[in-house]
Amino acid sequence: MPIRLRPARELLHSVVSNDTARPDNRLALVDQALFAGHSAAGQRVVIEVVWVYEHGIDLDGLRRFHHNLGYGLLGRRIERSPLPFGRHRWVIDRGPSDIDVAQRARPRAELSDWADERSQLPVDPERGPGWHLAVLPLADGSTAVSLVLAHYLIDGLGLANVLADAILGNTHDLGYPPPHSRSRLRAVVQDARQTAQDIPEVVRAVATAAKLARRGRLEVARSPAPRPAALHGSDGDDVVVVPTITIYIDLDDWDSRAKALGGTSNTLAAGLAAKLGERVGRRRASDGAITLQLPISERVEGDTRAFALSYARVSVDPTHLTTDLGDARAAIKQALGSVRETTDESSQVLWLTPFTPNRAMKRMVDAGFTDPDRPVFCSTLGDLGSVLSRLDGTDAEYAAARVTGQRITRQWLERIGGQLTVLSGRLSGKVFITVVAYQPGAENTKSALRELAARTLAEFGLTGEID
Question: What total number of domains does the chain contain?
Answer without folding.
Answer: 2
